[in-house]
Write a structure and sequence with these properties.
Elements: H1 3-15, H2 45-50, H3 52-55, H4 58-72, E1 80-83, H5 89-96, E2 102-106, H6 109-121, E3 127-130, E4 143-148, H7 159-172, E5 173-184, H8 186-192, E6 196-200, E7 205-213, E8 219-228, E9 232-242, H9 246-255, E10 259-264, E11 283-289, H10 297-305, E12 308-313, H11 331-345, E13 350-355, H12 361-368, E14 374-377, H13 392-400, H14 409-416, H15 418-427, E15 435-438, E16 453-457, E17 471-472, H16 475-489, E18 495-499, E19 505-513, E20 516-519, E21 523-526, H17 540-544, E22 554-557, H18 562-578, E23 584-591, E24 597-604, H19 613-620, H20 625-640, H21 662-674
Helix pairs in contact: 4-5, 11-20
Region (Disordered): 1-21, 676-700
Domain ATP-grasp: 422-634
GO molecular function, one term: ATP binding
């Protein structure tokens, strides 16, 4: 065997698994062939060959470096991290210009090796490291500038993962540091991408490309079939990139903590020999600043010893409450409050004060405002125990400028209107049950839905107005239950009529704020103890009437296909962000006859009691009731940046094993939630998002 054959074989071995060496032929849907982790294998020697006219043109690199230096006003003493640096062309160019504190970081082992080799040949003293951009190995406050160049942003299936990258960038930047992003102009590409093209790479190689928008039009899906004239097809590979525009980039940077996002003149420096610029055709230049304080060792040490002053706001037991069976607080309610106080007392380094007199609530809060670090808002009854006025309570905190847990007034207003939430979900292409809003009995004559139907007040809490009679099979039953319910809720209240779905009744709980949040195990309602002649519905009787057969309903871990789990979790995370939920929320779904999930309701600030749905979900994740409350407080602290020196620890039940921290298992769960397929390529192993015997809390 000749040396040339040996080299050729070794190259083929290195490329094995990175590309598909046999073509699939004509493909109708490119998106179905894109692996969620395509970026782990695509960037190899073929990548440099197919994009050499852009990636290895020194003149193009110089022009891009000129822009970065000019826009940011880089100084030689600035510590610069080039994130997703590829083969290091920008790092090397800056090093040639006398910038000694420049470093490159990329996921591709091949490209990092290439960068190190080039630096060694030019005797340039720069450092290159390999790793995941969502978990940078650098201490906080390390760099003056972080750059993400060459359309290296937007490779993940979810914007949550892109935000995680930006939050890591924020962390490693010094106070006053800047990020600079060179991203594809998504609006331009959507209108102008070439569905098919081909070009010669050199005298032996040519590449054929196919492109199409993803089903949600948010990503451009690309296929490359690379051929060598004496060997035929040598690679058939698929990849995708998210199409951000100025507005979405601005929102993403702002949500990640950056200040003053600024757009600069767009540019398209390409080689004169470029035949197909693809997504490099037109780009967006964007910079933003980090505004944060330098950490102080002395102050953080003192702060960690000082207990946090938390005011807990509750419903008023002195006032009437129409939702409760007897319209007053009873022994069960006081027992619930006592259990909550006991659980809070188990949380270390926090001093709790309780307020429940609504007549003086605003004045009491005003007096304590200067000494209050955080309000734990557990007043889900609403101001004066009026659920319509639930948003009034956080509005007080806003007026007094007091940090608080949970959703703000706007989110509570949105989610109190079930029909409005349905509209938002449909706009986001999240499936909902077929339904219609009815404001008057005359609307029923034009009803086009098929019976049976679920009849429920369009606004309301705690299943008020939803009973076993709410499942109707005729127009007569529909008119009767509407008349009966109006006597309880008022004659002017609209109803939401939805097709009654016969499948599993499931709920998803989230604690935290995406992307750093805990998705609790999905639960389903077990109706096995409910008599067969009764409709399977978790209404008012199940929550408030111990003598009802519905009182025997149990919440158990949901038995769902992995694909359904992922679809539901992704939708919940998207709705959490879109509707402005904060710190914790619960999402109720039901499956149709074919097992397809349909969203029913979104519950910001869901019930916090020890035996509520959220606490049951937490228990299945081995989180104690005290730990659940601590996690909600911790989410708010992190969101506000309160007590950065302290740490809220999820407390596990006594006698059970200690769990991994969220940081330790984040990467694993991100891959599970974001994966498009339930089978990992290469080894055929199934992966479950939620596992009943998992030893980790699933964290996104």
């Amino acid at each position: 065997m000749t040396q040339n054959n040996i080299d050729s074989n070794s190259r083929r071995k290195r490329a094995k698994g990175a590309v598909q060496t046999k073509t699939l032929g004509p493909v109708e849907d490119l998106e179905t062939h894109v692996r969620s982790d395509w970026w782990q294998t695509l960037f190899n020697s073929l990548y440099l060959k197919t994009d050499a006219d852009l990636l290895d043109d020194i003149e193009v690199t110089k022009k891009e470096a000129d822009l970065v230096v000019s826009i940011l006003g880089l100084n030689p003493e600035d510590a610069v991290l080039d994130l997703c640096c590829g083969q290091g062309r920008h790092v090397l160019e800056l090093a040639r210009r006398g910038f000694p504190n420049v470093e490159g970081y990329d996921r591709s082992q091949y490209l990092i090796r290439k960068a190190r080799t080039r630096a060694q040949k030019e005797n340039l003293q720069v450092r290159f490291r390999e790793g995941d951009a969502r978990k940078l190995p650098y201490p906080s406050d390390t760099f003056s500038v972080v750059t993400i160049l060459g359309n290296s942003f937007g490779y993940f299936d979810s914007t949550l993962q892109d935000r995680k990258v930006l939050e890591e960038v924020f962390r490693v930047l010094k106070p006053g540091g800047r990020v600079f992003i060179d991203a594809v102009d998504g609006d331009h590409i959507r209108k102008n991408f070439q569905p098919r093209s081909w070009e010669w790479l050199d005298r032996k190689y040519f590449v054929c490309r196919e492109r199409a928008l993803s089903s949600d039009c948010e990503r451009l899906i690309c296929r490359e079939v690379i051929c060598r004239i004496d060997r035929g097809i040598i690679a058939d590979q698929f990849y995708a990139e998210r199409l951000y525009n100025r507005e979405s980039l601005f929102e993403l940077l702002t949500a990640s903590g950056f200040s003053s996002p600024t757009f600069h003149t767009t540019f398209s420096p390409v080689s004169t020999g470029t035949q197909d610029a693809g997504m490099m055709e037109k780009r967006i230049l964007l910079s933003a600043t980090v505004e944060k304080a330098w950490p102080s060792m002395e102050s953080s040490g003192a702060e960690s010893k000082k207990p946090l002053n938390v005011v807990v706001v509750l419903g008023d037991p002195r006032k009437e409450d129409q939702v409760k069976p007897a319209c007053v607080f009873d022994d069960d309610d006081f027992e619930t409050v006592n259990r909550m106080k006991t659980a809070l007392s188990e949380i270390p380094s926090i001093k709790f004060t309780f307020l429940d007199r609504h007549e003086t609530l605003f004045e009491d809060l005003r007096k304590k405002a200067g000494k209050t670090d955080l309000v734990l808002n557990l007043c889900d009854e609403g101001f004066y125990n009026d659920p319509v006025k639930e948003l009034h309570v956080p509005a007080m905190f806003e007026q007094l400028n007091i940090p608080y847990t949970g959703a703000g007034p706007q989110c509570l207003a949105y989610c109190y209107d079930k029909s409005l939430v349905r509209g938002v979900a449909r706009e986001m292409r999240i499936p909902v049950a077929k339904g219609v809003l009815v404001t008057d009995d005359s609307d029923i004559s034009r009803l086009s839905l098929s019976f049976p139907l679920l009849v429920k007040p369009n606004s309301g809490d705690s299943s008020f107005g939803i009973t076993q009679k709410s499942i109707v099979h005729s127009r007569e039953e529909l008119l009767d239950i509407m008349k009966e319910t109006r006597e309880k809720i008022g004659s002017d209240k609209p109803f939401l009529l939805e097709e009654f779905l016969p499948g599993k009744d499931i709920s998803v709980g989230i604690i935290g704020n995406p992307p750093s949040c805990t998705v609790l195990p999905i639960t389903e309602e077990d109706y096995s103890a409910v008599p067969g002649e009764l409709p399977k519905i978790c209404g008012y009787e199940a929550k408030w009437l111990p003598d009802s057969p519905y009182w025997k309903i149990k919440s158990v871990p949901a038995d769902l296909p992995e694909k359904t789990q992922k679809e539901v979790v992704r939708s919940c995370l998207a709705l959490f962000t879109r509707l402005g939920c904060r710190d914790y929320a619960r999402f109720d779904w039901r499956l149709d006859a074919e097992g397809r999930p349909r969203l029913l309701e979104v519950n910001p600030n869901p019930g916090w009691c020890w035996d509520g749905h959220l606490a049951k979900m937490a228990a299945y994740a081995n989180i104690s009731y005290s730990g659940m409350l601590a996690a909600i407080i911790g989410a708010a602290k992190k969101r506000y940046g309160i007590g950065l020196g302290g740490k809220v620890v999820l407390q596990t039940k006594a006698g059970q094993s200690t769990r991994k921290s969220p940081a330790e298992c984040a990467a694993e769960f991100e891959e599970e939630v974001e994966a498009k397929s339930s089978i990992e390529p290469g080894n055929g192993r199934k992966r479950n998002v939620f596992s009943s015997n998992s030893e980790t809390i699933k964290v996104l």
